[in-house]
Amino acid sequence: MDFETILKNRRSIRDFQNKEVPLSILKEIIQDTCLAPTSGNGQPCRFIIIRNRDYIKKLSDESKKNLLSDLEKNPESPLKNYESYLRDEKANVFYNAPCLVFFIGPKEVLSLDVDCGLTVAYFMFSATSRGLGTCWIGLGAHIRDREILADIGVRRDCRIVAPIVVGYPTSIPAASERHSPDILKVI
Length: 187
Known about the structure:
187 residues, alpha+beta, NADH Oxidase, four-stranded antiparallel β-sheet, 37% helix, 14% strand, globular
């Protein structure tokens, strides 16, 4: 698949086939992410691969619990839009995907969000080139239970930047409308 096709075919996928993603393919995709630029070539991103659907649901429930707690503390939060979804016991913020990859890194790295963001883009493009779908799940980053964090391998000096689901899509949605670039000035 050429790069232009990859750019045009990458979509946020929220419905996956009941088919496992081979670990060997995941490792190839993660290897591709090592080509992403990072500040000072620091390469701070680390990866946690979770392929157990029951455990992924447990992580979803933990994240939902924490988001609801945040909403109780701040009832005017934009999370209000998700309240009924978060209260649904069957709802899985990870869309029942067969695989979840956490992109994490050291808390002290000032450029961590940007570095991981670029790394995630490479991950998504590499997955797309292999016929896989991905979606960045912002609601899934709210894992706070220290025991769960330790169990999945998040050290105390690190934080979750991006939870990315990956799997074989049941279908690929049409592209959402994009506006033209807003070039403010050319000097």
